[in-house]
Design goal:
It comes from Canna indica (Indian-shot). The protein is mainly beta. Helices cover 15% and strands 42% of the residues. It contains 6 helices and 27 strands. The chain has a 21-stranded parallel beta sheet that branches. The longest helix has 31 residues. Bound molecules: 2-acetamido-2-deoxy-beta-D-glucopyranose (9 copies). The site of one 2-acetamido-2-deoxy-beta-D-glucopyranose has 3 residues, from loops.
Length: 464
């Protein structure tokens, strides 16, 4: 290509970007006009019938096991499902319980001084089938423990409170994990499967045995104003893991855990490929997080059903191993594409942007090593970082370059002498300091950068 041809290409590329931005402005004003459903959710849903868990024999002394009381209350409330639904209220007190399952058209509401406490006896956490998109428990082959608060095939479920607490007493599970005495994969605090119209708001979650909040095969999910806490050294205590789910809004949360703050997934290798349930249409905004041995905003490593159309904005991250992270591996198949991350402030982060195609970890020996994942159309813009060691470690897959990785307005105060390391990636960068690696700034590279379509899923998540 001659010099004048390449300049011509560059002008065309710039023109294309401007067109995208213009299209974006048009659409975002339309989205804004549609109003925010997020804000109205909690207050809008009135349940004509309400019971208190003490009416079913629960004792809030922190010692009595209340599993039966929760189960009986929920069984009783079944009959109100077609009459506008019902509320189960948990008053002030310490409510020890094993796992229980929710019903449709339900509000589970905690008093501000209510604490639901998970039993430390693993036999109070029944064992259920592995997820079809994982083919086995995530930690151990075979089935897995059911989450403390569980739900399957539900519609219209609200879990809320005036900042009441759900405490998983996870430390015994972390010990069992660390000393290799688990019999099955550890449970979550909340897992909802195949459910639509889910609100989780105004609550604090502490010491989850494993990932805290796990919506899987769900749609129309709003997670708002929750606090999630676990110690820095607690293993795999991710905050929120939307998995094979669509139309998800996560906003106004403070999450400080041992592993990823928010991580989007969609199934594992051959099981995820054949189950083929993507995660798509996800908005994440106004999150403050610390992910001591994980990442602030992460994708994968299980992504075999595909992940697309994710926006994250207005994020503050502290004291983490990674800021933004994409993890995948040969064998995963699937894709991570149309991702837009903007306005992130990072402080004391080892690697600001970590993208790897060599994560490893397979469910069994039957994965297809030729099933290469696609990582494409990833835009990261408006990043400010202080006390960062590495700006970016970006390793794609030989024969399946990660493409259209675009960085714009990235300013990192970096301590490492070689701030960027890149292999098998291609893309574009603009106003990046320290200057990005060569594959992301080839003047002859005509990259198409993904300009978020700014369809705000927080405005579109519509419950009921
Ligand atoms: C959370 O609490 C605030 C303040 O009490 C309330 O206005 C809001 O509706 C609640 N949100 C939900 C989703 O219940
Ligand atoms: C829940 O929904 C899934 C997907 O539609 C279905 O395969 C499964 O059988 C349902 N489970 C129950 C208990 O109804
Ligand atoms: C968040 O929850 C707290 C405590 O329940 C409440 O005071 C506050 O208004 C809530 N904020 C939002 C945005 O819902
Ligand atoms: C909720 O409670 C947690 C734990 O006590 C606290 O850290 C957090 O600030 C509270 N959140 C709100 C919004 O009041
Ligand atoms: C493993 O941890 C559990 C929970 O703390 C403890 O009861 C058990 O004795 C430990 N087992 C071994 C082999 O260290
Ligand atoms: C594992 O199974 C054994 C045998 O049933 C049981 O004694 C032990 O408590 C179980 N361990 C855990 C962590 O559930
Ligand atoms: C994702 O959002 C777009 C735009 O609102 C919509 O057209 C599409 O149907 C959504 N996808 C799913 C799976 O809901
Ligand atoms: C960047 O780091 C250097 C050395 O630690 C420090 O002196 C400087 O103030 C930092 N700049 C910013 C903007 O944080
Ligand atoms: C893959 O990316 C590298 C730069 O990281 C580049 O040199 C190589 O030509 C690319 N391969 C293909 C097939 O585009």
């Amino acid at each position: 290509m001659s010099r004048s041809e390449s300049i011509h290409m560059k002008i065309l590329a710039d023109l294309f970007k401007i067109l995208i931005i213009l299209a974006t402005i048009g659409r975002s004003s339309w989205a804004a006009m549609s109003g925010s459903y997020c804000k109205e959710m909690g207050s809008r849903t009135y349940r004509p019938h309400s019971v208190t868990v003490t009416e079913f024999g629960a004792v809030g002394d922190g010692v009595t096991l209340n599993t039966k009381a929760f189960q009986n209350a929920l069984f009783y409330l079944h009959s109100f499902a077609d009459k506008g639904g019902a509320q189960l209220f948990v008053p002030a007190g310490k409510w020890l319980t094993g796992s229980f399952s929710l019903i449709s058209h339900l509000t589970l509401s905690l008093d501000k001084d209510a604490v639901i406490i998970g039993s430390t006896d693993s036999s109070n956490w029944p064992v259920i089938d592995p997820l079809p998109s994982y083919g086995r428990g995530r930690e151990l082959p075979g089935p897995r423990h059911q989450s403390l608060i569980h739900g399957s095939n539900l519609t219209d479920v609200i879990i809320t409170g005036g900042n009441g607490t759900i405490d998983g007493q996870g430390s015994i599970w972390w010990d069992w994990f660390n000393n290799h005495t688990l019999n099955y994969t550890r449970p979550h605090l909340i897992e909802l499967m195949y459910s639509t119209g889910v609100v989780i708001s105004n609550l604090t979650f502490i010491n989850s045995p494993f990932w805290a909040i796990h919506p899987v095969y769900c749609s129309q999910v709003l997670i708002q104003n929750v606090t999630i806490l676990a110690p820095p050294d607690s293993p795999n205590t991710d905050g929120i893991d939307p998995d094979s789910s669509n139309n998800v809004c996560i906003e106004d949360c403070y999450i400080n855990t041992g592993d990823d703050v928010i991580v989007i997934k969609s199934g594992w290798d051959e099981y995820g490929i054949s189950f083929a349930h993507p995660s798509t249409n996800i908005s994440i905004r106004r999150i403050v997080g610390e992910a001591h041995s994980g990442a602030g905003i992460a994708f994968g490593s299980e992504m075999s059903g595909g992940i697309s159309n994710v926006q994250a904005e207005d994020i503050s991250l502290f004291n983490s191993l990674y800021g933004i992270r994409i993890k995948t591996s040969p064998g995963r198949g699937g894709y991570v594409q149309y991702i837009h991350i903007s306005n992130v402030v990072m402080t004391n982060i080892k690697t600001a942007i970590g993208i790897t195609g060599l994560y490893g970890e397979h469910p069994d020996e039957n994965y297809d090593p030729n099933a290469l994942p696609t990582v494409d159309m990833i835009t990261i813009e408006g990043i400010e970082g202080t006390n960062i060691k590495h700006a970016g470690l970006l390793e794609g897959i030989e024969g399946a370059n990660f493409s259209n990785i675009c960085l714009s307005n990235v300013h990192l105060n970096v301590t490492s002498k070689s701030p960027w390391k890149c292999s098998y990636v291609q893309g574009f960068s603009n106003l990046v300091d320290p200057e990005s690696c060569e594959p992301l700034r080839d003047p002859y590279q005509v990259s198409t950068c993904y300009a978020a379509n700014h369809i705000d899923h927080c405005n579109l998540v519509q419950i009921v």
